[in-house]
Design brief:
alpha/beta
Amino acid sequence: MAKRSDYLSWDEYFMGIALLSSYRSKDPNTQVGACIVNEHNKIMSVGYNGFPVGCSDDEFPWDREGAEYDTKYPYVCHAELNAILNNAGASLQGCRIYVALFPCNECAKAIIQCGIREVVYLSDKYANTPMTRASKRMFAAAGVKLTKLTPTRTEVLIDFDESKV
């Protein structure tokens, strides 16, 4: 009997973990997850966008428009930063980070500073914004590799039906 041939590639697997993590986000507009992996394909950490621990998502605003203080932007911690902060203290030097949405300039600083050497992403829909352009400039200067993932499939079904396990 031959082995299965339709299994996930490492890149699709880790991007899948990032996408699955995004389902933990309570943001009504944008859900992003991140997965950090070392050179041995071991998951070092995951994260998703949300408010810091102790800041109730029922009390802080989710709005995108209005006075900045009354929007989500000063409060939300992005998936990439959460994944870096959620790491149990091991070095992230030389790791890869998988994220569906290309990192903003603030996350780029944290990614570079902790030693992550590659960013694998699905979408670069904000490519022409000053923040994304700044991210790319910093990544280039720091020698961080940028890889746009081109998956071989459009979806992976996760079925919680115990009879199928």
